[in-house]
Amino acid sequence: MKIGIPKEIKSNESRVGMTPAGVFELTKNNHIVFVQTNAGFGSGFFDKDYVAAGATILNTIEEVYASSDMIVKVKEPIEQEYKLIKPDQVVFTYFHFASSEALTNAMIKSNAICIAYETVEEEDGSLPLLIPMSEVAGRMSIQQGAKYLEKPIKGRGVLLGGVPGVPPGKVLVLGAGVVGIQAAKMAAGLGAHVTIMDINMKQLRYVNDVMPNHVVTEFSSEYNIRKRIKESDLIIGGVLIKGAKAPKLITKDMLKIMRPGTVIVDVAVDQGGCFETTKATTHENPTYIIDDVVHYCVANMPGAVPYTSTVALTNVTLPYVLKLVNEGWEKACENNIPLSKGLNIVKGKIVYKEIAEAFNWETEMV
Ligand SMILES: NC(=O)c1ccc[n+]([C@@H]2O[C@H](COP(=O)([O-])OP(=O)(O)OC[C@H]3O[C@@H](n4cnc5c(N)ncnc54)[C@H](O)[C@@H]3O)[C@@H](O)[C@H]2O)c1
Fold it and tell me: Where is the Alanine dehydrogenase/pyridine nucleotide transhydrogenase NAD(H)-binding domain positioned along the sequence (predicted)?
């Protein structure tokens, strides 16, 4: 099969759909891989690395789409790409259809096979192609939070790890899922005192079992949150209720009981945020201050570390890509339930009912 890896053209996106190591696996399986020139540059991969892995470099995005049976990328196609997608072409990427009617209409019109990373779902309900990005964001949240705690950027002027004779900083992590556990692990590694809250006792038991003693678990409730935020230096929001907006665990009035210079990092911003005062920010302008509390609410945190994010993404997408190219998309989806859940739009028809529901479209489209 012919597989195309275009350069991402969405603004500020430096990730790429596949690493040279992933390309190597595909060429080893006798597939032909076309990579657009400089596609990997932002992630630290060069054309010569892809050539060494067996790829052919093409000069333009048009050539990549026109030459390929399947496209593997990162972000949803943007308007300039709509017309490049061909009937029967398989497109494997993050789509997030429910958030764009224009994209949904364009992909219906394309008659392509759109398989969305974000809806590939294991039998236990986990979303394997979203996990690495939550891992990246969870770990980054502490790195960013520690930086914004510094005085020149209006933080409290606290070093998270403390020093001999000075106690460490206090970190409160809301949510003990993928983001929360990775955040707690990083904060603990820096020597901070960490409290992690969840409403799921199973998760709290797990955290309690695997984390060091300076990470303590507490049941998430308004009472407990109000008590902890008074003394926290850094608060991480990593809660998720599947398919719903994030609950507002920290309301505007609560900012008044925090100490000036407290930093809050709302990783859940892409689901509306779990702080009432959250509004999405960008890597160019990541923070704003309300009531002396520094807010960091970047919606695409992994975009800032494209090397790590690209490698982490290829690690999890490659096994599915191999199934799709070795078996063909129909057989691969028949044989693999998690992958079949990734099918969103097939040759002009929506096959994932939540997309039609998101736009209140007639269900006969499904
Ligand atoms: N900003 C970014 O760049 C970025 C990147 C990756 C993920 N995210 C987002 O981060 C959020 C968390 O993702 P995840 O993968 O960790 O999800 P997850 O499902 O693994 O974990 C979420 C946790 O929140 C807990 N929770 C639900 N309600 C709660 C409450 N009231 N109090 C405390 N905990 C509660 C759940 O029990 C669960 O353990 C999601 O919204 C995800 O989209 C953002």
Answer: 149-297
